[in-house]
Write a structure and sequence with these properties.
alpha+beta, five-stranded mixed sheet, disordered N terminus
Amino acid sequence: LASLTKALSSALLGKAMLQIHSVVITESKQVHLSPTLITVLATLWIWSIALPSKAEDNALVRDANQIVVADGAALLRNIKPTAIAQNQNTAPEIPTPDASEDGGGNNQPGDSQTPEQQQPGRAPETTPRTSNEPRVLVAEVAVEGVNEELEDIVYTTISTEPGRTTTRTQLQEDVNAVYATGFFQNVEVSPSDTPLGVRITFEVQSNPILNNVSVITVPERKDSEILPAAKITEFFGNNYGQVLNLRDLQQGIIKVNDWYKNNGYELAQVVGSPQVSPRGEVTLVVAEGLIEDVQVRYFDEEDEPVEGKTREFIVTREVELSPGDVFKRDIAQKDLQRVFGLGIFDDARFSFSPGSDPSKVVVNIDVVEGSSGSIAAGAGFSSDSGLFGTVSYQQKNVGGNNQTLGTEVQVGDDSLLFDVSFTDPWIGTSKSRTSYTVNAFRRRSISLVFNGDDDIDTFMDDNDDGVNDDPDAPRIVRTGAGINFARPIQTDPFAKRNWTLSTGFQYQRVEVRDDDGDIVSKGILEDDPNATPIELSAGGDGTDDILSLRFNATRDRRNSALQPTKGSLLRLGTEQTIPIGGILYNRLRVNFSQYYPFDLLPFGGDTEALAFNFQAGTVLGDLPPYESFILGGSNSVRGFGDGEVGSGRSFFQATAEYRFPIFKIVGGALFIDYGSTLGSADNVIGEPSEVRDLPGSGFGYGVGVRVQSPLGPIRIDYAFNDEGDNEIQFGIGEKF
């Protein structure tokens, strides 16, 4: 048989050998050929010479001198397998995102590849096959080291077949292809010479049975506290108890990365290569985006670094992310909103820099400081002040501490206001956002208790003849100062503020004066010579000293402070005076608003709502008339003029509104208001509401338009009251 093989091989120049189909029985390690099979074999070789195509003739001439039958194994030895990377000492690096669009500028992605780029077991690029590469005749192909099921996978994967030629390049591609199936951790080729050619043996070692997948983080080398164990089971559990397939493992790794990203952990990813133990336990190393440091950087409008005026802790105390935390998108967005909400920056953004540890990141807060000083001027008209002009100056970020110093001067026909205030929105030593405001003021205005459609004038009887010599509208002049502290109940400065408490005290000297600036103590109904003069102050001489201690509590559960459509707002307040001037009273007040989303109009969107408001209050003790509750007007019972329902020691007020959108910046409202002094008008010194013959209660209803503006919604309401009158009224912001 050997002599016949050599003779035929020389005569046919190897071409016939390429046309032979597999006649080798590979069920055992030895080849068995029968005499009949030898005859058939020889016949097939002869036919292969007689029936070549033109292309095959050309290939025959080209490759005739390159086919090796004898001693071909020496040409195929030492084909290096592609080993599975399982280095447990891999130092993973976290790729910091390129934040160049955010102005970071110094961000450099890490050098490690993502799992989408790292494909365990994937065949690397091979060198192109050259026409001069020797081709060796394959007599037999065998697979050793695995069970029958995995053998079939190998046979299906490789392209080397008995009776055909092969090269080193083709065998290397077969080895890589077997690796690429993902089932094997080692593949080696063992060639040996036989009389018919080379016997190719693929010695393979399968991966272990997958029993468990765990995730550890770097640099701590501990189990992840973020990724739930149930998710790991969901991603990999279906493959437990089966031979580990690196392709399936890779798909699970991609799911792990996607889970981190979808849950806001933008910097987290599996790094390095999976660590596979002989027991089938796989360990994935995750760099979750651990924050090494949080730094503040200052830039000008041209994005050039500058030295900032704002103290760094003013910014960092607004940021919940801190060294040792894992970077999370949702928290970062809220942090950025708080930083920008300070009102002292024109721009604020996050950027990233590599940490000293490759698995950590430095979070940069890049800010552009705005102008700290501003001057504003304007003019307007109000019921209690008439036509007025105002000028204000505000200096923000005093000393780089985000403190505000402000002054305002307002001058009108019947008013004069001067106010200076200093506010610290977060006392530096406080951990719970405690703020304070100190202010001093002098305010002169017409009181709606005494003035309206039927005015009460000052009463001056210089001739002592009972005749009002110089009637004029009384002006209430308040001069004083105060301080107020506020803080949320929650000690966590980043928690939602459900409850906020405030307390403070205020001293004011209250004087009732006429247009000439003279103090007056009595007033009388205008154009009524028979009217009886009434007291205008509590002390009887036109002056009162009031020192009061105030306490307020607010619970805010609204979904939006500007356009709420859901939730509630509750305000409770009390004011207790200290009788330094003989005035002792306690004021109690409650204000509750409830909002319900509504879906009546097809174009209503998310701004359509039903809104309800209820207010009530009372005063116990000595009550100066100018301190009584006032009802009527655009912020009270619409359809009545300001203060035209009445004033009293107690009150109740209710409003219902249906709010709906019309256009993008225009909305509408249907409303009904009700208010009452609860019969307490005669319990006020001088009974000014009774003297002016005000109804004491009433309701109004109508329709309104809301136009969005930089100042807030401009409110225009057209309302009717229960007495048949109507009013067009204006306001800034929603009524509640």
